[in-house]
Amino acid sequence: MPTLVLDTLVNAPIAIVFDLARSIDLHMYSTKKTNERAIAGITSGLIEAGQIVRWRAKHLGVYQTLTVRITKMEKPYFFEDKMVQGVFPSMDHQHLFEERNRIIKLVAESGDYVRYC
């Protein structure tokens, strides 16, 4: 299974970084170029464990919808979302937050979505 790993360093308290990573509003703001919108489920605020959000976005000129559920959450260190409906056979994201010397390292991993391509 292909895995994509993205490491990001942030100079902010771990609780704030954790909340920003699960902010529906910030996600939509950061994806303006693909016009990504939360269209069902939790459509604003902070998503919590067990909740679902359905996204609609334009990628490669085609609008697609993707529904994900937050399947695990250990505040403020970890959460996982899994696709429950969409164009890929499956898609999982693990978001890990580590604090070292007051710098937060956010590790986001994605896997098992490339088989569609």
Can you characterise this structure?
With 117 residues, the protein is mainly beta. The chain has a single domain (3-116), classed as START domain (Alpha-D-Glucose-1,6-Bisphosphate, Chain A, domain 4, 2-Layer Sandwich), CATH 3.30.530.20. Helix content is 13%, strand content 51%. It is built from 2 helices and 7 strands, in the order βααββββββ. It has helices at residues 14-21, 24-30, and strands spanning 3-10, 37-41, 52-59, 62-74, 78-85, 92-100, 103-111. The protein has a 7-stranded antiparallel β-sheet, with helices on one face. It is globular and about 45 Å long. The mean pLDDT is 87.
Question: What brief labels describe this structure?
Answer:
globular; 7-stranded antiparallel sheet; Alpha-D-Glucose-1,6-Bisphosphate, Chain A, domain 4; single chain; mainly beta; 117 residues; 13% helix
Topology record:
Blueprint: E1 3-10, H1 14-21, H2 24-30, E2 37-41, E3 52-59, E4 62-74, E5 78-85, E6 92-100, E7 103-111
CATH architecture: 2-Layer Sandwich
Q: Which radius of gyration do the C-alpha atoms yield?
A: 14 Å
Approximate helicity band: 10-25%
CATH class: Alpha Beta
Strand content: over 45%
Count of runs of 4 or more consecutive helical residues? 2
Q: Would you identify the regions where 5 or more consecutive residues have pLDDT less than 50?
A: none
How do the strands line up in the largest sheet? 1-7-6-5-4-3-2
Quickly count the domains.
1
DSSP, total strands:
7
- The mean pLDDT is 87
Shape: globular
Q: What is the CATH homologous superfamily assignment?
A: START domain
Structural class: mainly beta
- CATH fold title: Alpha-D-Glucose-1,6-Bisphosphate, Chain A, domain 4
List the helices and strands in order.
EHHEEEEEE
Largest sheet: 7 strands, antiparallel
Distance between the termini: 13 Å
